[in-house]
Amino acid sequence: MGTSEWISFPEGFLWGAATSAFQIEGAVAEDGRGVSIWDTFSGRPGIIRNGDSPATACDHYHRWREDISLMAGLGLKSYRFSPSWPRLQPGGRGELSAKGLDFYERLVDALLQAGIRPNLTLYHWDLPQALEDEGGWAGRGTPRAFAEYAGRMARRLGDRVDLWATLNEPQVAATHGYGLGVHAPGRREGRKVLNQVIHHFLLGHGLAAQAMRAAAPRPIQVGLALSMDPIWPTPGRPEDLEAGERHWTAWNDWWLLPLLKGEYPARAWEWTGADVPEVRPGDLADIRQPLDFAGLNYYAPYRTTADPKLGPLEFARAPIPEGAPRQDMPGWEVFPAGLEGLLVEFTRRYGRMPLYVTENGMSIRADAPGADGAVHDAERVAFLRDHLAHARRAMDRGADLRGYYVWSLMDNFEWGFGYEQRFGLVHVDFATLKRRLKDSAHWYAGTIRANGFQAPPPPVLESPFLQAARAR
Ligand code: FCB
pLDDT class for 195, splitting at 50, 70, 90? Predict the structure, then answer.
């Protein structure tokens, strides 16, 4: 790749790694933990690849001390995790369970002792089944219960945790869980109900943010982790650009405008017609709460392309360009410039605000220790290096990026894919639960230590939206 350059990050940049409760904890029936929608859903035959069971996962519930030592060894500045809601409120409401609290208090205390700043996401998809039985996110009971839970958590942990996200990827939780039925609770609802679910996720965020700020014993930072569609229309094709712009309005703005401005995008609302959700008086004011930061999760671009057969709310995806690198998740192209584009485009459209890349990472199914006992994941090293190089350039171009979290700290239960898709910096042998640092973990540790790395200069690939804006 010819010359390479030193890419350095500002002092205090928050280098992290992320996990979520259901994907790593195991111990699903211990210490009074209740049942979550993911326990129920993954128990249905044929749902999880290879019939994998999440019951043990990485056994983090018992091995958390070892896991914190690994993090400390990597030099992580921050660890993003989610507590398990049904461990804290088995039925989704009421007092927090003493055993549940005890686990997360010890975890947080040990992180702080190791000099690692906790970044806590309250909802990473494991809704207590009892709430789903009442209608789940399709009803208003769940957002209310979530806010109550969030307030209780902030009261108990807000003295030690200052970075909080309400929801993880509510976009995916809504579409995959209540639209496509491929995630828990596995429902296949029509547009109207799906829009109601989206509204209730937004409402849950807003009510929770208020409850958390009211309850925390000291000021905390509240945001959420979003999976925006990283729309990348084909450059030079005006019809694709138009479709991409429409896609942005109908999907990304549908989430971001209520959060930031307390309104749904008017044009998209018109296109939606009778399928718009019920919005009660006061809801939008409740949803629009100050965001201390936005978390962006990025894996692969969405190459929106025009298709005259589709209505204004539907989008076609262009095939992955021939020869483009891919990761092992089906349909996920490796496109590091997309991260720069997303950060810059987010800032251009919604204004400058503190941002974190709350997830970015690569799945390599074949990750396994070689004869030398090491895991040589050179592609992941390149993936992280290239995405970070683009993220760094986005900062030069005005994005207020404060930190970056690799998904994931360790191989774990990848939802419907079970243990087949490996995203970790740390390899987990699911037969023995042995942890082993991959080459990427060593590279990341070195990067954190030096606050930078050596890399080929990233290609200049301007987002098609910006190209068009410039040309105007
Ligand atoms: C994201 C999820 C995370 C993990 C990665 C691969 O959508 O937030 O839990 O599954 O994808």
Answer: very high
Mind listing the pLDDT tens digit for each residue in 36-93? 999 999 999 999 999 999 999 999 999 999 999 999 999 999 999 999 999 999 999 9
**Arithmetic mean of pLDDT over the chain:** 97
Condensed to tens digits (0 to 9), the pLDDT of residues 416-471 reads 999 999 999 999 999 999 999 999 999 999 999 999 999 999 999 988 998 888 88
Compute CA 430 distance to the chain's CA centroid, rounded to the nearest angstrom. 24
Residue nearest to atom 5 of ligand 1 (CA): 407
Q: What is the pLDDT of residues 369-379, one digit of tens each?
A: 999 999 999 99
Tell me what pLDDT residue 2 has.
58
Task: Please state, in angstroms and rounded to a whole number, the distance separating the CA atoms of residues 271 and 274.
Answer: 9
Of 119, 125, 167, 169, which is best to mutate to test ligand 1, by the most ligand atoms within 8 angstroms of its C-beta?
169
Domains of the chain: 5-471 (3.20.20.80)
Task: Report CA(168)–ligand 1 centroid distance (Å).
Answer: 9
Q: Which residues of 130-168 are buried (b: 16+ CB within 10 A; e: fewer)?
A: bbbeeebbbebbbbbbbbbbbbbbbbbbbebbbbbbbbb
DSSP E strand boundaries for 61-162 = 78-81, 117-123
Angstrom CA distances, 135 to 129, 131, 159, 175, stand at 10, 7, 34, 16
- Under DSSP, the state recorded for 182 is S
Between CA 70 and CA 49 the distance in angstroms is 28
Q: Where are the beta strands (DSSP E) in 228-347?
A: 293-297, 304-305, 316-317
